[in-house]
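Our working data are protein records whose layout never changes between entries. An example says more than a description, so a record of this kind follows.
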Amino acid sequence: MKIPTTDPIALGGVRRELERQLEERLAVLQELQPFALPSVDPVAYQTSASHRVAIDQITAALNRIDAGTYGLCTRCGRPIAPARLEVLPYAAACIECQSHADAA
């Protein structure tokens, strides 16, 4: 299923999915919080850190929807491939820019 990022109906579906993922991650984070100290449970600590990063990315994607810039690379401004957004709906960068960032 291709997601045309200018289609308000498709964006509504993307928004709902992002909000669902956000709620899910916030719930997991809340469960892990009492144990998420490196000295108490290092795995819970790392898992919490990963969830916090994803929460920040999802929140940024929701803000891009509100701003009308969802689906555009935050680095180069070109469109992000719809297939990438299907797999990672909170992707902020196109594959090329993300590859350069990962290599740095």
Helices lie at 8-32, 42-67, 82-87, 95-103.
